[in-house]
């Protein structure tokens, strides 16, 4: 039985508030922009609060906090995705945004609770997965790549504007006002989802009533990882992703803290750095299509890995401000690696297995989001890297020999990350060339089922078809 009025739709006991207009990519873009804009405002305040709360172990605690958050996200993402296939995207957009932004007001109340809640919020920090599923629901196959690019560009745009604005407000009015502004943006995002976002999940893929029970395979975060070894090309691809994204995730979790506390960047410099790297990253995404046509997906991946390796080396050995700026430019150029990997999967896998392989790659990235920050935090701690003022005293006050080494290699985790990326480059070199494997199309119904029905939760069908031994 379906009961309709202007505000709600009730079907078989499931209530979904209606939105404004038909579901579209625009709704997803607004949701992702507002969430990351709120957190972007807090970039500078978080650095200050983190340093004040953990003055002796800033990088270690930053790595542990972000590591716990990433691991919890990896563990919860398949279950939340599977539930969104049953109960719809809108409800889980609301849940993920609300709980991800819930720690923000605690920043001015209790910093220990603030960082504890950031770690625990990782259980719901999977908004991107739900947004991508929402976009898949409302776009055709031909439109989807462009729509995903818009989501990524919107995320980058929010990070271009918000850190600079947050730094400016903090400089003029203090941290409290920035926290209030970030809280207001988060509340606006929640309100937008409740009022304006319509449900996107098509009725024909939504189960009747409460639907069938969620299977353990759908909720198991390691299900996709266990299937990696079933195909040699998929295995190499996932190994390359792991080796390259592990240092990238670690770097992303600490680079702004590193620039301010170790390299001596001011608040305004860090904000400008974020903005410039963000703008360059958007520009790189725009020219990605041309690179793919001229170089091919495999060689574009290798170019991206080369830039990533170079920027990690610059971060690791650089001891001057201009070196950090140069590394930032290389980081923007290296941002084309993961889109190129997604394109490689799209070009070289069968139509009925693309969602499966993409899910494996996403699972590896999710694992890196937890391990990378923890790895960087522990390495910084082992090499006694924390505050810039402490480095100035090296060799004068009888500090350990490690400090003398740090003057040569200011960022040890970045150097280790560069070595891992070199290994990723070697693995990527053995990937099959583009279009070696013929791409076979399946029926539209099967395509719809795989990409719309269980796209976030995981595969509906086995990875390996009996007649195929390659990707």
Automatic annotation (TrEMBL):
<feature type="transmembrane region" description="Helical">
    <location>
        <begin position="300"/>
        <end position="317"/>
    </location>
</feature>
<dbReference type="GO" id="GO:0016020">
    <property type="term" value="C:membrane"/>
</dbReference>
<dbReference type="InterPro" id="IPR011701">
    <property type="entry name" value="MFS"/>
</dbReference>
<dbReference type="InterPro" id="IPR020846">
    <property type="entry name" value="MFS_dom"/>
</dbReference>
<dbReference type="InterPro" id="IPR036259">
    <property type="entry name" value="MFS_trans_sf"/>
</dbReference>
<feature type="transmembrane region" description="Helical">
    <location>
        <begin position="323"/>
        <end position="345"/>
    </location>
</feature>
<feature type="transmembrane region" description="Helical">
    <location>
        <begin position="113"/>
        <end position="135"/>
    </location>
</feature>
<dbReference type="InterPro" id="IPR005829">
    <property type="entry name" value="Sugar_transporter_CS"/>
</dbReference>
<dbReference type="GO" id="GO:0022857">
    <property type="term" value="F:transmembrane transporter activity"/>
</dbReference>
<dbReference type="Pfam" id="PF07690">
    <property type="entry name" value="MFS_1"/>
</dbReference>
<feature type="transmembrane region" description="Helical">
    <location>
        <begin position="405"/>
        <end position="431"/>
    </location>
</feature>
<keyword id="KW-1133">Transmembrane helix</keyword>
<feature type="transmembrane region" description="Helical">
    <location>
        <begin position="366"/>
        <end position="385"/>
    </location>
</feature>
<keyword id="KW-0472">Membrane</keyword>
<protein>
    <recommendedName>
        <fullName>Major facilitator superfamily (MFS) profile domain-containing protein</fullName>
    </recommendedName>
</protein>
<feature type="transmembrane region" description="Helical">
    <location>
        <begin position="234"/>
        <end position="259"/>
    </location>
</feature>
<feature type="transmembrane region" description="Helical">
    <location>
        <begin position="91"/>
        <end position="107"/>
    </location>
</feature>
<feature type="transmembrane region" description="Helical">
    <location>
        <begin position="176"/>
        <end position="197"/>
    </location>
</feature>
<feature type="transmembrane region" description="Helical">
    <location>
        <begin position="25"/>
        <end position="47"/>
    </location>
</feature>
<feature type="transmembrane region" description="Helical">
    <location>
        <begin position="147"/>
        <end position="170"/>
    </location>
</feature>
<keyword id="KW-0813">Transport</keyword>
<dbReference type="InterPro" id="IPR001958">
    <property type="entry name" value="Tet-R_TetA/multi-R_MdtG-like"/>
</dbReference>
<keyword id="KW-0812">Transmembrane</keyword>
<feature type="domain" description="Major facilitator superfamily (MFS) profile">
    <location>
        <begin position="24"/>
        <end position="435"/>
    </location>
</feature>
<feature type="transmembrane region" description="Helical">
    <location>
        <begin position="59"/>
        <end position="79"/>
    </location>
</feature>
<feature type="transmembrane region" description="Helical">
    <location>
        <begin position="265"/>
        <end position="288"/>
    </location>
</feature>
């Amino acid at each position: 039985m379906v009961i309709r009025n202007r505000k709600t739709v009730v079907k078989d006991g499931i209530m979904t508030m209606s939105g404004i207009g038909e579901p579209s990519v625009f709704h997803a873009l607004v949701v992702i922009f507002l969430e990351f804009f709120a957190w972007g405002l807090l970039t500078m305040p978080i650095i200050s609060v983190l340093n004040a709360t953990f003055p002796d172990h800033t990088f270690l605690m930053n790595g542990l906090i972000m590591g716990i958050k990433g691991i919890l996200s990896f563990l919860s993402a398949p279950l939340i995705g599977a539930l969104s296939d049953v109960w719809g995207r809108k409800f889980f957009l609301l849940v993920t945004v609300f709980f991800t932004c819930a720690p923000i007001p605690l920043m001015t109340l209790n910093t220990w609770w603030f960082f504890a809640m950031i770690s625990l919020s990782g259980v719901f920090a999977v908004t991107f997965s739900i947004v991508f599923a929402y976009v898949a629901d409302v776009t055709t196959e031909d439109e989807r790549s462009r729509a995903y690019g818009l989501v990524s560009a919107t995320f980058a745009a929010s990070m271009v504007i918000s850190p600079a604005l947050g730094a400016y407000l903090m400089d003029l009015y203090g941290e409290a006002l920035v926290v209030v502004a970030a809280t207001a943006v988060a509340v606006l995002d929640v309100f937008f989802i409740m009022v304006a976002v319509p449900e996107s999940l098509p009725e024909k893929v939504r189960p009747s009533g409460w639907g069938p029970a969620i299977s353990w395979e759908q909720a198991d975060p390691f299900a996709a990882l266990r299937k990696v070894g079933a195909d040699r090309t998929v295995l190499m691809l996932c190994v390359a992703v792991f080796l390259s994204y592990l240092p990238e995730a670690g770097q992303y979790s600490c680079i702004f803290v590193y620039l301010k506390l170790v390299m001596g960047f001011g608040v305004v410099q860090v904000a400008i750095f974020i903005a410039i790297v963000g703008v360059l990253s958007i520009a790189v995404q725009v020219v990605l299509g041309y690179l793919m046509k001229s170089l091919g997906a495999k060689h574009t991946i290798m170019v991206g890995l080369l830039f990533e390796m170079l920027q990690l080396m610059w971060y690791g050995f650089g001891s001057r401000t201009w070196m950090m700026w140069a590394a930032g430019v290389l980081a923007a150029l290296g941002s084309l690696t993961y889109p190129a990997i997604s394109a490689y999967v799209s070009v070289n896998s069968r139509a009925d297995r693309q969602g499966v392989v993409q899910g494996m790659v996403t699972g590896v990235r999710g694992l890196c989001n937890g391990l990378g920050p923890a790895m960087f935090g522990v390495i910084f701690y082992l090499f006694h890297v924390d505050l810039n003022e402490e480095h100035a005293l090296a060799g004068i006050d009888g500090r350990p020999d490690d400090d003398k080494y740090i003057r040569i290699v200011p960022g040890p985790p970045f150097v280790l990350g560069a070595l891992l990326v070199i290994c990723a480059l070697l693995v990527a070199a053995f990937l099959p060339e583009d279009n070696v494997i013929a791409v076979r199309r399946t029926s539209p119904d099967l395509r719809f089922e795989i990409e719309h029905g269980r796209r976030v939760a995981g595969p509906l069908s086995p990875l390996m078809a009996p007649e195929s031994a390659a990707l």
